[in-house]
Amino acid sequence: MIIYLVRHGQTDWNAQEKVQGTTDIPLNATGLAQAEKARELMKDIPIDIIYSSPLIRAYRTAEIINEYHHVPIITEPRIRERNYGIYEAAKYDAYPGVEYWDYALNKRFEGAETVREVFERVYRCLDDIRRDHPGKTVMLAMHGGAARAVHVYFGGFPKSGTLKGLVTPNAEPIRFDVPDDMPAYMPIPELPEKEGI
Questions:
Q1: What is the pLDDT of residues 15-48, one digit of tens each?
Q2: What is the rounded distance in angstroms from the CA atom of residue 114 to the CA atom of residue 135?
Q3: Known catalytic residue: 8?
Q4: CATH class of the domain at 2-137+145-177
């Protein structure tokens, strides 16, 4: 099967370098234009189904891309953004990003999901999607933080030593070619591979 990962278009909080998390911020004018550009890039791709985070910035991005495809959009809470707890609405330079995304440390910050909780829900979702749609082309409309789990699921832990370095640009489709016989990943790995984090 083929999976396309599409992070939502820009929001005002992206432009202001503020952590969004589960705060439901809509696309701004730039984000709408980015989603429209992704729509044009993907118009000839035979997408079978779209799974979207329930947050409006991701769902609206999915709707715009779907204007050429008219396929079902399934709202999937397991690919929503990470709950950042006390750091929701914080400036990027005011939250401890590297520590926040340290998989081995897996620290629980006040009110927030841990890294592994995010990975577990995203991994379970990807396992289910692969089971339910073998041989199909599936698009995921989601978020930069939670998308780190998608990158690791298909590509392994980064050699850079930090998940924080796994960046998904706004509304730029990323393709993963997935053999139908690729094994499921649950449970999530206890620790990264030696060459990883």
A1: 999 999 999 999 999 999 999 999 999 999 999 9
A2: 33
A3: yes
A4: alpha beta
The sheet with strand 49-52 has its strands ordered as 73-75, 49-52, 137-142, 2-7, 174-177
| Contacts (Cβ under 8 Å, ≥6 apart) of 189 | none
Report residue 38 as tokens: 């992704």
Q: Which tokens go with 66?
A: 């779907």
Residue ranges per structural domain of the chain: 2-137+145-177
**Residue of 69, 76, 81, 151 with catalytic role:** 81
- List 8, 69, 143, 151, catalytic entry: 8
* Burial (CB count within 10 angstroms: exposed 0-12, middle 13-18, buried 19+), residue 179: exposed
Which contiguous run of DSSP H or E holds residue 90? none
User: What Rg do the C-alpha atoms of the chain give, in angstroms?
Assistant: 16
Say which amino acid occupies 149.
Answer: A
Q: What is the average pLDDT score of the chain?
A: 94
pLDDT digits (tens, 9 = 90+) for 95-140: 998 999 999 999 999 999 999 999 999 999 999 999 999 999 999 9
Asked if 103 contacts 193 with a C-beta cutoff of 8 angstroms, the reply is: no
| pLDDT-above-90 percentage for the chain | 85
Distance CA(63)–CA(61), nearest Å, equals 5
